[in-house]
């Protein structure tokens, strides 16, 4: 037990208080989180929009900067994972369940209730797809990339422990980060991770339940979700016990195969040419409207501001609350890559895959709705399966989707147990299994309490609340990373070489 830090005990205590409140007074818990969430979105919405936009600019700057050639490790060190395995692991950890859960539901929701236009119109269709790209595109991955890069740089380049507190030393000082302030920082990061992952596990359990209800008429209630989470918890703890190189790697690769299979099946049975046209058109509209969408907060139009609070601010909070977990995990598997290679891999490729995914499933859902079949009436977790029901091979598509959500569930929780273990054992790359087991059980229990006390609304409230304090740490992390990179740039003499003048 000597390897276990105070961060473990403090965070476990906070989580237990959180759980007791949710069990003893679920209604009061829901009301409290709803009030706090409303205050945060109405007061700090502008801050979220500006912060995340700055992170996108920062990542693009690093791609073209001379410091992009700096390697995350020794300068002659090569990556330990192949590009395919690396991409599969970062993508599975980063967005897996979310893509399947929201793939059809979000574009359809935006189509029925667009951010600006009238619902169920051509312009509403365009807005629905464009804003879905926006929520799952460069901004989301810029948050992950910024946090992950800071962690990887200080851990593998500077030899610091793989802790959030270690990345803040150039700004807050080594003495402070090695003391009580550093412990507070790491407790905050671990708590944000627990809530962020638990929320996603709640979404996963709800969608597995939704699929079983739609296909086999199994009840859609808390008891079934409890059984699902218990079964999946056992599975991901077995995977976590086997270690990063075995369980997570193999499951991540399986995820990519299943996701590709589901994608190709829909591409074949659906309106293929329309998919290609919608992807091209939406990508162009997304890029041409990127600045406007990035800073749009609609302060003078209440219903549009409410839409932004419920969707854009929620997503930015979701990505921020997930960033310590995903950042640490991506950093762990990215040793040996250059900063430029890292940013391109983390920022651009996953965003492109997300765009393709939402084009297929979002377009399909809207086209089914337009055909006269009202799938928008179904609960969010059942919309994907209701859509499949209108296509050939519907049972096969639904079964593949359920398996995909289940394995994404396992890989997300599996990765999180490793990251939480690492964060609470002084940054150890091989945390004890007992620590991983503890965190595995706790994050599943938190997911259950959130589902029990407030359903999907409770999950969303918890996310937004947990994200705000950690967002302040992200600001310091970026400043700290920039200072250190500028210093190393001078030491290595990394400057743009002027072009020779023509004689």
Describe the structure.
The protein is mostly helical. 79% of the residues lie in helices and 0% in strands. The chain is built from 18 helices and no strands. It has helices at residues 6-24, 26-64, 83-102, 105-112, 122-136, 138-157, 169-172, 174-177, 180-216, 222-242, 244-269, 272-288, 290-295, 302-332, 339-370, 383-388, 394-423, 433-492. Helix 1 crosses helix 2, helix 9 (180-216) packs across helix 10 and helix 10 (222-242) packs across helix 17 (394-423). The model has no long low-confidence stretch (mean pLDDT 86).
SSE layout and pairing:
Elements: H1 6-24, H2 26-64, H3 83-102, H4 105-112, H5 122-136, H6 138-157, H7 169-172, H8 174-177, H9 180-216, H10 222-242, H11 244-269, H12 272-288, H13 290-295, H14 302-332, H15 339-370, H16 383-388, H17 394-423, H18 433-492
> How are helices and strands ordered from N to C?
HHHHHHHHHHHHHHHHHH
Low-confidence stretches: none
Radius of gyration: 22 Å
Report on the biggest sheet: none
- State the helical fraction: over 70%
Distance between the termini: 71 Å
Mean pLDDT: 86
Amount of beta strand: under 5%
